[in-house]
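Quick illustration for those who missed Monday's session on complexes.
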Amino acid sequence: VKTQRIAEIRLVVDELASDLKRLQEMRLSTAYSNYICGGPWLSCMVWALGGETGDGVLTHYEGRGSANWTRQSEQLPAVRALIEASFSTQKLKFARLGMLQPGSVIIPHRDLLELDAPLHRLHIPLQTDENCMFTERNIVYRMRPGEVWFLDASDVHSVACFSTRNRVHLILDFGEDATAEDIFAIKYTLPGDISQDCVLRRQPMTQAERQSLLGLSSVLNERNWRTVLDLVIRQHFRCDGGNGFVWETMLEIAANASDRAAAAIVHEMHHYYLMERSGSE
Ligand code: YCP
Ligand code: CO
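Prediction with cobalt (II) ion bound:
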């Protein structure tokens, strides 16, 4: 199934606000923070295979038995109520809150590469604004609060939080065998695609902009490659450099870099985020 908005939930703003306030005081997982420039990525498991909070790394829950609410979820009654009112937990494997901090971006990546079986992933933004953006392939778009999105996480995607507030999404992962009917307790539609009203129009990238980024090859080193990647990602959200812009630009910067060790790291990272990961992370 492709990425698309499939339903809408009326958020109970006041009750959610107290949950989100409590979230700030809870001990959160920093798993997957290596996907972030800026960061960290903070997550809070509310429902998981085995029913334990765990460390937030999805592969570590495989074979733990039936799914259930975690201890942490007791502190988040509004989030629990939201899930119970709108979804069927029958085939739900994970429910987490994921928090991205102001000024952070997520490195373009594909998820689920390390899992035994694919999942059906839903995103429901709880706290976000027009300065938070998602991107899939060369489409930059916004998910609004309360919208329920199916995310094809096997496709290359990335995120930017240019807001002054944390961006908080509820992320639900259902089993491979779950149909839309198994998932939803509310009305849903399957538009089939990312609708145009969510898509951001960007100017084409100029030659000068492109050349400036490629020029970073002369300064690329083992200590700044992440900062260079950060810059390239930010440029992608600003203007249209074409499909595959971020990683293609990084590989071209690496190809022209005199620091071969740094170039090797870029190649390794490209492989890690887009191609394959071993089961551990
Ligand atoms: C996402 N994927 O794309 C998640 C968050 C990194 C991995 C953390 O939202
Ligand atoms: Co992802």
